[in-house]
Amino acid sequence: MKTALVTGASRGIGKAVASRLAADGFRVIVNYCASQGQAEALAAELNTLYSAGCTAIQADVSDRAQVEKMFAAAGEIDVLVNNAGIAQQKLFTDLTEQDWDRMFDVDVKGMFHCCQCALPYMIRQKRGKIINVSSMWGQVGASCEVHYSAAKAAVIGLTKALAKEVGPSGIQVNCVAPGVIETEMNAKLDADTIRELREETPLGVIGAAEDIAAAVSFLAGENSRFITGQVLGVNGGMII
Ligand code: NAP
Predict the structure, then answer these.
(1) Residue 129, H or E segment
(2) What is the pLDDT of residues 108-166, one digit of tens each?
(3) Which atom of ligand 1 is nearest to the CA of 152?
(4) Is Transmembrane helix included in the keywords of this UniProt record (predicted)?
(5) Residue 82 near ligand 1, beta carbon < 6 Å
(6) Residue 52 clears pLDDT 80, i.e. is over it
(7) CATH code assigned at 50
(8) Rounded to the nearest whole angstrom, what is the distance from the C-alpha of residue 168 to the centroid of ligand 1?
(9) Cα 166 from chain centroid?
(10) H helix and E strand count, the chain
């Protein structure tokens, strides 16, 4: 049985990805930072539903020592989904250096740590899949989210460069760029903003976490064997 590690899987998109990959037959490592109860409940639920040996493991992905400890406990990883992320809306002129650093520490450096810890086994195996979660704002930029947009653009650059470097080792690195997805990350948006976003979306709906999970499932599975270094937009047509 192959093992998938999903960062930030205690809730939202990561939770849907973990559930989908367990349903696909993976043993899933449910990473979380603060939401221990939710992560452990998910791992228990996945074990009951799929008897897949799933476990919840705590690690702040921005912290190298914690990430190394998580990978040591997790064992060999066939599929790494770098999903953990934070967002923040603030005028660029109000951003502090701490805001900027925390955004990049979690959303970019977290991927650097996790990829470096996952790769030695993948390189030995001459196979493996890394799927990074970016955002459509990393493709086109969002007002009042300059540090988030810059971090998510960095994720796309990381994906493309790493895909070139580890492709010869049989490892695929791809990226999913979600549009507006209904999770706690967007809970602060008011009804008018949600309506406007829906109206701007050609398919006329806000996405569900399961829509991202379906794209990750494809990239994690055998049907994506000739795809690497790509950015798969899952955004209802908002960014084309
Ligand atoms: P969410 O509901 O806020 O969930 C965030 C997840 O990330 C939680 O499981 C959280 O774990 C985890 N996390 C946060 N900081 C972490 C850290 N330092 N170390 C480990 N885990 C950490 O967000 P979401 O909407 O599901 O977003 C998931 C990903 O999709 C993010 O990368 C986000 O940028 C991206 N995305 C989301 C949307 C959207 O519309 N929702 C759109 C584009 C891209 P704890 O609760 O345990 O802290």
Answers:
(1) strand 128-133
(2) 999 999 999 999 999 999 999 999 999 999 999 999 999 999 999 999 999 999 999 99
(3) 34
(4) no
(5) no
(6) no
(7) 3.40.50.720
(8) 31
(9) 19
(10) 9, 7
Q: Which one of 19, 86, 117 would you pick to mutate in the ligand 1 pocket, going by the greatest count of ligand atoms within 8 A of its CB?
A: 86
Whether 184 is in the pocket of ligand 1, judged by its Cβ within 6 Å, is yes
**Number of domain units in the chain:** 1
Tokens of 107: 């959303």
- Of all protein residues, the one whose alpha carbon is nearest to atom 46 of ligand 1 is 35
Ligand 1: nearest atom to the Cα of 184: 2
DSSP string across 53-94: --EEEE--TT-HHHHHHHHHHH---SEEEE---------GGG
Helices 64-74 and 110-125 cross at an angle (nearest 10°) of 30
Mean pLDDT of 59-73: 99
Give catalytic residue positions. Answer: 148
Residues 154-199: tens digit of each pLDDT: 999 999 999 999 999 999 999 999 999 999 999 888 999 999 999 9
**Distance from C-alpha of 122 to C-alpha of 142, rounded to nearest angstrom:** 35
- Residue 150 sits at φ, ψ, to 5 deg, of -65, -40
Domain presence at residue 239: no
Is 7 a pocket residue for ligand 1 (Cβ < 6 Å)? yes
Domain with 165, as residue range(s), is: 3-234
User: In sequence order, what are the residues at sequence separation of 6 or more whose Cβ sits closer than 8 angstroms to the Cβ of residue 164?
Assistant: 229
Both tokens of 65, joined, read: 């020592």
Cα(150) to centroid of ligand 1, in Å?
A: 16
The model's pTM is 0.98
88 in any annotated domain: yes
Q: What are phi and psi of 102, to 5 degrees?
A: -65, -40
- Specify if 145 maps to a domain: yes
